[in-house]
Amino acid sequence: MECLKRCTTFLLLLAALVAAPAHAGKPYQHFVVGNGNNAVLPQPAKAAMVLMGGGPDVDAAFAWMIQKSGGGNFVVIRSRGTDAYNPYIYAMGGVQSVETLVIPSRDAANDPFVAQRIRNAEALFIAGGDQSDYINYWQGTPVQAAIQELAGRRIPLGGTSAGMMVLGRFVYSALNGSITSPEALANPFDKRITLARDYLAMPDLGSVVTDAHFDTRERLGRLVTFMARIVNDGWAGMARGIGVDVETALLVEDGKGTRVGLGAVTFVQSVGQPQVCKPRQPLTYLNLAAQRLAGGGSFDLRNWASYDGGTTSFTVSADKGVLLTR
C-alpha cells in the first residue's frame, strides 16, 4: 500500500511538471501539456480557418484544425484566463503538444519567446475574452506579425468570440465597451462603435467584419450598423458581414465554408451607400442581401454564394433605426 501511495504521488508530480507554467518573472504565462519541443512538419497545401461564435466550444472544429495541421504543436493565445484549453484539446489526440500563452500586456507581446512559440505553431487558436485587449496589447507587436506570418504559411488558424472578431479585415474593436443592436441602430456614431481595419489579413476575409454570439444576443442590427459605417466612412466600397451563433463554427478551407455545431452562420452583403448614416440620427440602410447557413451544404466566401442549396436567402434593412427582415 505504501508503494502504491509513493507511485501515485510520483505520477501526480510528473503530470504537474509536464503541464507546469514556464513564466516565472516573465510578463506572460506559458503552459504546456505534452512534448513542447518544436515539431517540424510540411507546410499545409491549403489555408484552413475556424470562425467560432462563442459559448460552449465545438469539438468538431478543434478536431478539424488538428487534422488540417498534421499534428505538431497546437498553440492557444489569449490576454487573460487559464490553460483550460490544454487538456481539452490534448485529449482529442493527434498533436505533439498543446500550449497556452497568456499575453496580457504590450511588454508580453514584445517578448521574443512569445513570438517564437507562436511562429512554431502547427495550429493557432485565439481564445475568447475582450477584443479590445487584442488590439491594445498586440497591435504593432511581434505577436501580430507572428499571427500574420502563420497565415502566410497556410497554418490552420481559428478564434472564438473575441478571438474570431479580430480575424476579419474590419474589426469591431470595442475600445469603449460593447453596444447592443438597438443602441447601434439608434445612433451609428455612438462612441461605443469603435472600428479598426487591417489588423490582420486573413485569406478570404478581405471585405469582412465578423460578429459572435449572434443569435443569443440578437446582433444582426449592430452588424448591419458596422457595415454601414465601413461604407459610409469610405473604408471600402462594399462590406460583408459574417455572424456566427453560439456553439457553432464555420470551417473555411480554400474559400469554402461549412458549418458545424448547433446554430447557424449568417452572411450579409452591403448594397451601395446607406440612405442615412449620421451622428445622433437613426440608421437607414435598405435592402442588404443576407443568407443563412443552418444545416448541411457550404458557402463560397470568394463568390459570396451557396451553390448546393445550403443557405436560405432573405433581405435585411435598417429603416429609421428599426431592423426589418423579409
TrEMBL record:
GO biological-process terms attached to the record: proteolysis
Gene3D superfamilies to which the protein is assigned, alphabetical: 3.40.50.880
Molecular function GO labels: peptidyl-dipeptidase activity; serine-type peptidase activity; transferase activity
Enzyme class: hydrolase
Top-level taxon of origin: Bacteria
Record Pfam families: Peptidase_S51
Entry keywords, A to Z: Glutamine amidotransferase, Hydrolase, Protease, Serine protease, Signal, Transferase
Signal peptide: 1-24
Reactions the enzyme catalyzes: [L-4-(L-arginin-2-N-yl)aspartate](n) + H2O = [L-4-(L-arginin-2-N-yl)aspartate](n-1) + L-4-(L-arginin-2-N-yl)aspartate
Enzyme Commission number: 3.4.15.6
Function per UniProt: Exopeptidase that catalyzes the hydrolytic cleavage of multi-L-arginyl-poly-L-aspartic acid (cyanophycin; a water-insoluble reserve polymer) into aspartate-arginine dipeptides.
Membership in a protein family: Belongs to the peptidase S51 family.
This protein's name: Cyanophycinase
Organism: Pseudoduganella guangdongensis
